[in-house]
Protein 1
Amino acid sequence: MTDRVDDQSLRGFLAMVQERFPEEFLRVSERVDSRLVPTAMVLELDRAGQSPVVMFDRLGDFDMPCVTNVAANRRLLAACLGVEPSALPTAFRDRSQNPIPCEVVERAAWDEVVLEGDALDLTKLPIPYQFTVDAAPYITAGQVTARDPLTGVDTTGFHRLMLKDKNRLGVSLHSRRRMYEYHRRAEERGESLPAAITIGVHPLHYMGSMTYAYGADVRKYEIIGALFGEPYRLARCGVGDLEAPAGAEMVIEGEILAGVHEPEGPFGEFTGYASYRSTQNVFVAHRLRMRRDAFFHSVTSGMSKDHILISCVTREGEILNALRRNLPNVTGVHVPHSTCGAFLAVIAMKKTAEGEPQMAAMAALATELYTKYVIVVDDDVDIFDLNDVFWAIATRVHAEKDIFFVPGAKGAIIDPSSDPKDFTLTKMGIDATRPSGREFAERLVVPDEARERARSILRGAGITL
Ligand SMILES: Cc1cc2nc3c(=O)[nH]c(=O)nc-3n(C[C@H](O)[C@H](O)[C@H](O)COP(=O)(O)O)c2cc1C
């Protein structure tokens, strides 16, 4: 396959990492149990503050290699966009404003091997079993694509896929975004939804697939093209006029059944809890197409950085997007990993008048169902340092007037705090900014010059800073 296709592929990304950031690539050549050990390794790396991509040459009894921890590293994601890590959310937001039409190429890299009928057996893929609570091994890096039965516009997004049989996967569409709606529309007509699962895509595909603040007629593939800065190269696969990225490792063609619900889960979710909540849909596979030397990709699930970091970055970008329309004085947004990359957003602003932090908090709380707590701080606070954020809350908040609640708001199905009957919850905004228009206590600061001198002395004494 040509380099043009591979430039936008997962293997193109891995080649970039090995060439420019060799210290961020870990190859495990010894045979490793596919049950629990890969997850434990990635969580141990997270704990140690390390985020290399991990390539397992041999998992369990499988011959196919499996890569994980592809999206756990802000430095590597920033390199994909050619920016510094601190500029990642803004670059993501700015680039995704200008979708670029896709290019459809004749042949895809994944057309080299085609398995169907009796030869199709998904249990032969090196699918890790990630947590003891999981109902089965799960495909976690499957980008599911389908077309809207009404408009023909397609979508792509990760959905967890429970291995049930050689050609049967359980799927949960709990995000209730496009795929949930497309399936509902197909079901209304009594039809299954033709769909394809792409495995082994570039992290920019991963990022672009998470966008949501765009018109329903904008293809996510075009937003992914915008992130690449050139048309995303797709090829036709063999189901329902669908197109998939030409450089992917493999594509599973099939359909999400209408009117069929089967037990799906539990699954170790990004919330850090076992999730028993699911839309309980069923995907039936008809065909597997793959590269002759295909490798598998698995997102390490649970609260790993691999599972959560892109959600942090894309939410930061999307919330910025919502705020910049009315509040140009917002200077940054951070969605911390420790709040599952979902439930809390910290906003920094140069406040010009009272009430602006409340406006910012309300706009951010309304961007989507996962954002349930918002803290607004002044721009002297480092929003990427939660110690600094808690210091601002401790020293600048009058609880009775600076904290407000929005009861009965729609929450996420898999948020364990949402009401089990209707999934509502109470959202909260905290204004942790200084009062405007009057003197406030003066913050202690160490001048940059003295700080730099101190750092150089400490470095000279062998202390890593
Ligand atoms: C690793 C990962 C796994 C995900 N799993 C699911 C899932 O099982 N079900 C779901 O509805 N959303 C899941 N999401 C979120 C969706 O991928 C995301 O909301 C996406 O935008 C939905 O795409 P859609 O608009 O095509 O439905 C996951 C996200 C990530 C990063």
Protein 2
Amino acid sequence: MNLQVDWKAPIRTDVELKSCTTFKIGGPSRYFAEPRTCEDLFMALSFHREEGCPRYILGRGSNVLFSDAGFPGLVLSLRRLESSRIFFEKEGLVRASAGMSLIQLNLACQEKGLSGVEFLCHIPGTVGGALVMNAGFGRPDGKYQEMKDVVESVELLYPNGAVEVLGREDVRFEYRNTNLPQDVLVLEVRFRLTPRRRDAIQGEIKANFRYRNSVQDLRYPSAGSTFKNPVGYSMTGGELLDRVQMKNMRVGGAMVSDRHANFILNVDHARADDVLELMSIGQKRVFEQFGIRLEPEVRYVSSHDS
Ligand SMILES: Cc1cc2nc3c(=O)[nH]c(=O)nc-3n(C[C@H](O)[C@H](O)[C@H](O)COP(=O)(O)OP(=O)(O)OC[C@H]3O[C@@H](n4cnc5c(N)ncnc54)[C@H](O)[C@@H]3O)c2cc1C
């Protein structure tokens, strides 16, 4: 069904959320909008205000697990929002739309000979999602970087319609998190990059991909690392889960990777409940053996969330 009578921005109903996440899991969203322009976005937001239902902002859905029962309000997917809008300003400053994919950001910066975002290249998210998650990556033979290292400022849209630009010093970046309120929408991110030869940038991207391919399990749909690495411990989340024999464990259609114990894979029409059960078993075992509480990196959106 398409509610296009009064609203120019198409608001669809009963959209299967499994089609909008890398996990390929999730029931229907009561309402769903995927605006391409700011005008469409504002219309979708007016619809939401009128309807007064819960709202969830989505990028490329690469860090989200939706409930099997779906979502009772509006899911606002920003992966197509002005997704090719990028401006190159002076002195290495680059402004990119929140809806731009990280790979597209990389291709555009590489073309201009600007370096700094290579670590983001194969993270399957958007600029906005990477900002909110403070996405990061590093190779053992290179440096570890997070969004906080390359962001100069961020443009936000508040629920009351106000737009504000915050400098990086006004945002608290944490490990796989920021302190931005949940109802704030990231519209644009400004990066500070440095000039570098294009072949060197390309070499860095290739080396990152080779390493990523050797440690992550990219054979099946997933949401990347399920848990954050515990802070202050020498072992990573994956190593702890490996030590408690989680590799290969299967519940329904979800299975812990045999290559990386922190990756849960959707091997056969997995349900969110299958993934949640595997997560709970892993957390329980790690706590019992090591006294460490693993904190989820994947964001679970239940059918009661607002
Ligand atoms: C195979 C694989 C490998 C991965 N590797 C890495 C890795 O190396 N490093 C890493 O850090 N992560 C990794 N991830 C996780 C994920 O890709 C990142 O967290 C990514 O930054 C999420 O971006 P997204 O656009 O998909 O956000 P989503 O998953 O759609 O959303 C994540 C959060 O951000 C919010 N959000 C998204 N866009 C906006 C916006 N414009 N305004 C306000 N809120 C917003 C959502 O509400 C949600 O809370 C990996 C995932 C997969 C599937």
